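call fold(seq) -> tokens
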Amino acid sequence: IIPRVTYEPVKTGIYLVPPHARLIAEGKKKLIVKTRAYYKHVGEPLLLIEDGLAYGIIEHSEPEEITWDEFWELEDKHRISREEVEKWNWSSEDKLYAYRVKVVEVFDEPRPVKLPRGVQTYVDVDNIEFLSVSQLEDSELEKLHAWCHANWSSMLVELHESIREEMENRGIVH
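ret:
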């Protein structure tokens, strides 16, 4: 089932590395920062995706160029750590772009999805496969279960319960 908002169908997803989509869904992250300026999907409803889960629907603003000083001043809004900056090799970047995030909808529980290989930022929703927990391979189910425990929040309670039930049905130890 492709999620839809009342005024416009969702045609595109935005992929963020963990834990950034979840942080947006939880209301703890208000800015997305990228090293490139993207204008194509400004103001469009976007399916919010991270690590095999869709959390809801967001929109983002036009990119605003920011300096490194501004980046660090906004750390509580974008929640990107110094370790992530190093891991992503951003320190050599001259320009950074901040996108204000508007949450349109947060799903009651994250929805498992399968993305095509190589997705970096945006993905056409037609290329996303929405999965039920029962469609996951045993290894994917166990990975999602471990991920739920590692990233525990109140929004994962129902998803965890459906995973636990599916594991029990398959004879997999919880």
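The radius of gyration is 17 Å.
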